[in-house]
């Protein structure tokens, strides 16, 4: 990634990767959700606070149930990062798995957790519904509701 946003990150590949991955969140997220997207790194509040100092994410005034700070990307920055990142399929799949596990723990605590079945074709979410395969469009409102239930928009 090059340009003004990449310059704000300062050429740190780990921070660029984190920013790319959390760009799939359309609403609020915390360090736990970010860590689910970047399992190869140890993500905590200070990592997200570093992005906040660079004006790439915004810390929201409230905290989640686990007392973690809650952040969000400004919509324009999220769109810019998504346009500049070649493939976010893995990030989308990890976000789905994370929110699926959150919904299962909250709404079906007695049922053993099972991850969603792996997809045979890439799962594509973009700012434009036009690029999403027709068979997946009907699932998007349910996924968005699940995400909002796991980490409420503040």
Q: What attributes does this structure have?
A:
8 helices, 154 residues, 8% strand, single chain, mainly alpha, two-stranded antiparallel ribbon
Account of the 3D structure:
- The protein has 154 residues and is mainly alpha-helical.
- 49% of the residues lie in helices and 8% in strands.
- The chain has eight helices and two strands.
- It has helices at residues 4-9, 13-22, 31-37, 45-53, 75-84, 89-107, 134-137, 140-150, and strands spanning 57-63, 69-73.
- A two-stranded antiparallel sheet has the order 1-2.
- Helix 6 crosses helix 8.
- The longest helix has 19 residues, at 89-107.
- It starts with a helix and ends with a helix.
Strand order of the largest sheet: 1-2
Helix content bin: 40-55%
Q: Let me know the largest β-sheet.
A: 2 strands, antiparallel
Uncertain spans, ≥5 residues at pLDDT below 50?
Answer: 119-133
Mean pLDDT: 75
Number of helices: 8
Describe the global form: globular
Distance between the termini: 29 Å
Decide which structural class fits the backbone.
Answer: mainly alpha
Number of strands: 2
Global Rg:
15 Å
Secondary-structure element sequence? HHHHEEHHHH
Assess the beta-strand content as a share of residues: 5-15%
């Amino acid at each position: 990634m090059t340009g003004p946003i990449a310059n704000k990150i300062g050429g740190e590949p780990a921070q660029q990767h984190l920013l790319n991955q959390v760009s799939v969140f359309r609403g609020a997220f915390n360090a736990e959700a970010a860590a689910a997207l970047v399992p190869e790194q140890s993500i905590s509040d200070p990592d997200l606070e570093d992005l906040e100092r660079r004006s790439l994410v915004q810390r929201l005034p409230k905290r989640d149930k686990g007392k973690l700070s809650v952040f969000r990307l400004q919509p324009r920055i999220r769109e810019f990062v998504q346009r500049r990142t070649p493939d976010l399929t893995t990030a989308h799949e990890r976000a789905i798995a994370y929110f699926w596990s959150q919904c299962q723990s909250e709404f079906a605590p007695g049922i053993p957790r099972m991850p969603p079945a792996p997809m045979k074709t890439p799962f594509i979410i973009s700012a434009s519904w036009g690029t999403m395969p027709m068979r997946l469009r009907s699932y998007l409102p349910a996924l968005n509701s699940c995400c909002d239930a796991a980490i409420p928009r503040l």
